[in-house]
Amino acid sequence: MLEQIDLTKKMGKDEYKEKMGEMEPHLARLQRECKELGIPVMIVFEGFGAAGKGVQISKLISALDPRGFSVYAINGESPEEQMRPFLWRFWTKTPEKGRIAIFDRSWYRRVLVDRFDGITTSRELGYAYEEINSFERQLTDGGYVIIKLFLAIDQKEQKKRFKKLMESKSNAWRVSEDDLRRNKEYDRYKTMNEEMLERTDSACAPWTIVEATDREFATVKIYSAVIRAMEQKIREVKEEQAAHEAAVKVEKQLEEYKTQDKTEDNILRTSSLNSVDLTLSYTKEEYREKLEKLQKRIQELHGELYQKRIPVILGFEGWDAGGKGGAIKRLTEKMDPRGYQVNPTAAPNDLERAHHYLWRFWNNVPKKGHIAIFDRTWYGRVMVERIEGFCTKGEWQRAYKEMNEMEANWVHSGAVVLKFWLQIDKDEQERRFKERMENPEKQWKITEEDWRNREKWDLYEQAVDDMLVHTSTTYAPWIIVEGNNKYYARIKVLQSVVDALEKRLEDD
Which of 286, 391, 410, 414 maximizes the CB count within 10 A of its CB? Predict the structure, then answer.
């Protein structure tokens, strides 16, 4: 791609002033319109050292309302960032709906500077491109605009700019030994950039290569690319809104005439839950004996995980009153409280709704050596949000792949990921509901919504079956826990965790 770029392109001052006089106010209007429509925008500046990224970012933001954007300078990973998956620091910086995030270098550092410097291993490089492409696709599918700008200059121009910077006492610090080494090995580094551009130029997040030898020409091309991308997204959002309103009307009309052969649906449906043996149980004495041994072992393993810096992510889902809280309590009872965090997941708040639905879970990814436990998880997207209509059919169908990819990212970074579904039958749930209502100490656990959800049991059961089929993977499996007997369920959870952690420590 870079071989075909004409780096001699220039623009006269008069033409530059004329174009900028039109584009600057236009960009400001587009920023306001994106805010009104709730469109989040991410602008990425990559390119060769001394190509002018800082200068061009300053020129771009001069037209914007400073209350509506954030600028992030991405350097090497901090100690905190090194303790988490490499995309964590970028997920946590994704903007709210209606805001703009500008990145001076980005997630591409892993396949460029870090690769050149030998920081990125061949193993990490093997899946880094896949993770980057899935990250961008997930965001754009979720309504984000990603504008990627690559500023190109040749070796001779770069060397000249480095020399000029080093001659200035106030700017010499901007040129590092690593910069000079990349200039000396320009062709090798250029090849890495070529590969990056080819492997990450996608329909959802294309690259715009900016000929950056002439700063005025580069500024106008950057403005043009940003304006074009924002205009296109604004048109798409308005068209989608109109189409959605029309589709809702049609769907309501179809529902009046729609009939379903539920018997046939049940015969053809794949079900993991129907084969679960809910008669499995332990006596109180068996439970106490096993619990003591397993909790002691988990305490030991927790220390080993910390020493070897292995992160653990445990997700708990299940029917209301299925026993998630009890299982989590027994799991953590003997753990060092400084080394784990239980994250209860409720309906998203206003800040969480303003981001991609996976954002709040990325924010709670544990450090290496720590354990994150989720009491309800990201799988709400394909269960409660699907059933209650809080997301579209396309969104929850797409979510299976997105969640598999997210978990793969975590595993690639060294994490152990386990997911538990606590299964009880409808009669057992009713018994537990009534027990809670009759016990003043447990009445807070039962709500009218819990009773309403029972009326949709069959719908939820189908959603759970679909979820298990589509998202139980070799690297992040679902473990179905027979939960009618609480003693049995708790022991199975603890034993499953012990088995997985022991296996990981043996393989490490």
Answer: 410
- pTM of the predicted structure, to 2 decimals: 0.91
Q: What is the pLDDT of residue 157?
A: 96
Q: Are 403 and 476 in contact (CB under 8 A)?
A: no
Q: Which of 240, 258, 283 is the last residue of a domain?
A: 240
Residue linked to tokens 């700063």:
215
Task: Check whether residue 347 and residue 484 sit in a common domain.
Answer: yes
> For the segment 220-232, what is each residue's pLDDT rounded down to a tens digit?
999 999 999 999 9
Same domain, 398 and 302: yes
Phi, psi of 336 (to 5 degrees): -70, 115
Residue 312 structural domain = 268-507
Helix (H, G, I), strand (E, B) or coil at 70: strand
10 Å CB burial of residue 443 (0-12, 13-18, 19+) is exposed
Count Cβ neighbours within 10 Å for each residue of 203-226 and write b for 16 or more, e otherwise. Answer: eebebbbbbbbbbbbbbbbbbebb
Given a contact cutoff of 8 angstroms between Cβ atoms, the answer to whether 443 and 385 are in contact is: no
User: What pLDDT does residue 249 have?
Assistant: 61
Please indicate, yes or no, whether residues 172 and 78 belong to a single structural domain of this protein: yes
Q: What's the CA angle centered on 288, arms 283 and 294, to 5 degrees? A: 120
In a domain, 249, yes or no: no
Give Cβ neighbours of residue 387 (< 8 Å, ≥ 6 apart): 456, 459, 460, 463
CATH for 446: 3.40.50.300
Pair 132, 224 in one domain: yes
* Whether pLDDT at 268 is above 70: no
